[in-house]
Design brief:
With 313 residues, the protein is of the alpha/beta class. Helix content is 40%, strand content 12%.
Length: 313
Amino acid sequence: MHNDAPVHRDPLVTAQALPPSFILGTATASAQIEGATRIGRRTPSVWDRFAAEPGRILDGSTTAVTADHYHRYREDVRAMKELVVDAYRFSLGWTRLQPEGTGPLDAGGVDFYDRLLDEPCQAGISPFVTLSHWDIPVQYEGGWLSRDTAKRLGDFAGLVAQRFADRVDGWITINEPATVTLNGYALGIHAPGVPLLFDSLPTVHNQLLGHGLAAQAIRAAGVPGQIGITNVHTPVVPASDSSEDAAMAHLFDIVHNRVFADPVLLGHYPEVPDYLGGILDVLTDVPAGDLEIISTPLDFYGLNYYMPPRVAA
């Protein structure tokens, strides 16, 4: 675009330029925007704990206040209406709704999300709800390294689907399991902050199993809204023509894209070339029936896209 080209800053003009079937929306995550971490019976999530550790967040920010969406959601939704968006995607704070990580939903948490769902509905904006956007309860020992966490997500999904189904147009089971595995458990730069490298791979299967169990629980609740998962994928390019760079680019494509998409969409994990050794063996020896659960039919597969990496050995 030339510097002197006209730029449309009126959101209505932008919205009218899109095809009628295009859903233009905004997206948030509970830990990133809600704040109010000590209100009601809400308990800490792994992101509360991670952000509070000195040195984790560059400027010392925590989850305590953030954008204060908990108190300002009405004006936030008014801003969305002024933007002429069709949908608002937000996540449920797991520990606000289920403070102990088990048992029935908390009445105070339910009240907040009842109000949060009513607001966009009244403004003509479709709610899209994410069940797990990284902030799992700290009570889950091992986090996504534990198979039990997958079962917990399935239980949580059934409870919230029964409670909120009448106003939700789209359900997203998990947001970016690839980011949780790579940043949270492999590199340790996201919560829970454990740098395990390839020992993080069990979190792949446990998240996907949790997704499948959650999708089944939501569908069993008879919800009218669509059900899917959202992940982050990217094309991968070798940094040079060398065979070493090509091999590592292939490995990154497998661990960032294929081990997450293939089981959900195709019902199996990808084949791994012999030259990569037994790095992914943990994903080939899984309990019978898991892949059938993981590949539960969906209404959509969400894609978050940021940038194409160039990979060098």
